[in-house]
Amino acid sequence: MGALILGSVAPVFTPVVAQAQGAGNAAAAQQIADHFSSVRTMTGEFVQFGPKGDQTGGTFYIERPGKIRFNYNNSPVRVISDGNQVVINNRKLDTWDMYALGTTPLKLLLSDKIDLGGGRLQSVKQDPDMTTLVIGDKKVFGSSKITLMFEPKTYELKQWTITDAQGLDTTVMIFNLRTGVRFTDDMFKIDYQRIAMKRKGQ
């Protein structure tokens, strides 16, 4: 009899339960995002895993909104975002590859306030040792997305993965974090004059 009752009501109430669970997950995800957004500056060490299995590491620096810098160990390469542009600079070869920050999922990580509304939150997975948020914006980034992994009790960011339009993943694991730090004025400075000279062949 109980089975018959459950069987008859399940189709009626299952969507409501699913909606409630979905709303609960979204609210929990936004709470985590709000906490992370409140961290205005951060620095620490990182290990990066590329789509071909290559591994690099170094030190990173973040300042909201929009600023990030990666200094790689034993490498002339550095990555800098000044809030508008992202450059990959090889100091040995004096090469500069530049991209608009607003066209990359990295913008979602560095936003002044991470807003998961408008369909940007693609999925939430809550495990005892990790909460995983998948965020994207198909109107801006197409199929590219960023996956953020947080410690569920402290909401501390542990790693992120950027998936590009080809489905290739680049993962950054971070540790030895310090927040509330102050950076020098030139920490996120991009040498646009040098880039312009290079483009002119000088």
UniProtKB/TrEMBL annotation:
<dbReference type="Pfam" id="PF03548">
    <property type="entry name" value="LolA"/>
</dbReference>
<keyword id="KW-0732">Signal</keyword>
<dbReference type="InterPro" id="IPR029046">
    <property type="entry name" value="LolA/LolB/LppX"/>
</dbReference>
<protein>
    <submittedName>
        <fullName>Outer membrane lipocarrier LolA family protein</fullName>
    </submittedName>
</protein>
<dbReference type="InterPro" id="IPR004564">
    <property type="entry name" value="OM_lipoprot_carrier_LolA-like"/>
</dbReference>
